[in-house]
Amino acid sequence: QVHLVQSGLDLKWPGASVTISCRASGYIFSAFGLNWVRQAPGGGLEWMGWISPSNGRTGVAQKFQGKVTLTADKSTSTAYMEVRSLVSDDTAVYYCARDFAQSSVGLPAYWGQGSQVSVS
Amino acid sequence: EIVLTQSPGTLSLSPGERAILTCRASRPVPGNSFAWYQQKPGQAPRLLIYGTSSRATGIPARFSGSGSGTDFTLTIASLEPEDSAVYFCLHCVGLPCTFGQGTKLEI
After folding, report:
1. A112–B contact, CB cutoff 8 A
2. Which terminus has fewer CB within 10 Å in chain A: N or C?
């Protein structure tokens, strides 16, 4: 079955960068898009971006353009998201989530366990 | 960019009652771009409804979605205690995608 395993807790100073990983298994990695979504403490879901592992095409929410870089390594079935210039408001749980279907761009259906990033 | 506004912010109901959660888009959106998620504390979100009205695999029939244009609805018929959660709507046609701010459902 579809399984997404994310990297663990990361504690960062303000101004630093963090790279979160998302290792996929149970399906053909390059066949489905991957979304990145974050959730601040007590807050709602915030869609950040999407990547097609097959060709590296990305789409990033305007709020995060210039701050976030999405990549995918087909050889290890792992996606990465780098978040730069961290501020306290970036403290959140970051999720990767696979698209529902090959034809659905940006419909997260299978979620990782979440990666906690704390900026302080 | 589309803005999704969910209402009510919090809904308190009893088991067996029906819940109606709404999501309004800032401009008309295609029905195939609309989805609903359920999130319980400490858990990742779970896809409930996609394409406005299609239930995801394993989702009970008491969950249903409807709507068109700017107004979309998630209905939970005959609430169960385990339906206590926060519910989010999502719009995504092409990119970017947008979540609503969520409705907390208390049973």
Report:
1. yes
2. N
